[in-house]
Amino acid sequence: MYKNILYGFLFTITIIFLSFLYIINKSAPQNFLKIAFSINKKYLFLSLFVIFLFYTFDNLRTFIIARSVGVKYSFLYGYVIVLINSFGATVTPFYIGGELLPFYTLKRIKGEIYQIMSIVTLKGFSGMFFYIIFFPFTIHSILINPHKAKKIIFLFLFILFITVILFTLWQLIFKKRLKFLSKETLRSIKYTLLKYLVICKNFFKKKKKVFLIVLMLSLFMYNSLLFTGIFLIKAFNENAFSIKEVFLAQLPLIYAIFMSPTPGGSGVGEIGALSVFDTFINADFIGIFAILWRIINQYLGAFIGGLLFLILILKDSCKKDG
Fold first, then answer.
1. Is 239 within the bounds of a domain?
2. Which of 5-14, 50-59, 191-200, 254-263 is most confident?
3. Residue 172 has pLDDT above 60, yes or no
4. Rg for the chain (alpha carbons), in Å?
5. Is 29 a member of any domain?
6. HEC readout, 197-262
């Protein structure tokens, strides 16, 4: 697992570097320092504050689900879990790592595999609630801005095409033989799956109110993510737009990033931001804005999560050696 995460991290860094290089080459202003210091610090702080709320709501929903299936940990450790999830999502295709790393962070506090599977599943269902609710608004945003939507869709398809080619080459070069599973392993898997299905069934049957709370927290969480862009635009251009307009304009890009095959939506997020936000941001500022938006929205939390992940690995290694 660690080797795959390392490969994903290096691949992500490469895409981010190339994306930022493209943005700087296309949109870098000559008076960079003057623009950087002229940013409204109040709204920049609010943008950072709402991304903190994003992780807080994520922590709350995970914490509530975990308690309901019998896994207990401190609320502070919950921030460690969600930030490490963010790191995992950022360095793996289709955000897969965000669903895999809980098997490490929750297992180390005595969570059983079937409990962790239930937490990941229920969290995933609650997250999809946002995308279902806002899908009609996303279609509306695409229809009123078809030119911007075409750019995002073309970018998404191009990156998907390149990713498929790279993945195919990787499989051909590093193809590994499948190993047969023993009877004991198959028996253990069967037992785990049965326990997992029972927990999920009981949760939906007996804890509907809890799940409703979790759904609401997911809505608050993703709305906080969208408000980072709203406040960051205000930091560059305080009076030039309506909040509703920016909120809706971001939706197609959020969907594209979520469905992107590249780790953490890298490439799609950076370059897509140039198209989505150019209506609200002066051409001299758009490059700086796009980079800063992605750092706040994705890479800041992932960086902190990566450091926490490394600390936990070193800490656990020291315990084993001791």
1. yes
2. 50-59
3. no
4. 21
5. no
6. HHHHHHHHHHCHHHHHHHHHHHHHHHHHHHHHHHHHHHHHCCCCCCHHHHHHHHHHHHHHHHHCCC
Closest C-alpha among 33, 15, 31 to residue 271: 15
Whole-model pTM: value is: 0.86
Range of the domain at 261: 2-12+34-321
Measured CA distances, 268 to 51, 138, 199, 229 (Å): 20, 17, 37, 16
| CA dist 56 → 52, 63, 78, 113, 195 (Å) | 6, 10, 9, 25, 29
For the segment 204-251, what is each residue's pLDDT rounded down to a tens digit?
888 889 999 999 999 999 999 999 999 999 998 877 678 899 999 999
Number of domains the chain contains: 1
Inside any domain, residue 255: yes
pLDDT of 64 > 90? The answer is yes
Using the 8-state DSSP alphabet, how is residue 182 labeled? Answer: P
Look at residues 48, 252, 274 and name the one whose alpha carbon lies nearest to residue 140. 252
66 in Cβ contact with 203 (< 8 Å): no
Nearest to 259 by CA among 139, 96, 83: 96
What is the Cα–Cα distance from 267 to 274, expressed in whole angstroms? 11
19 found inside a domain: no
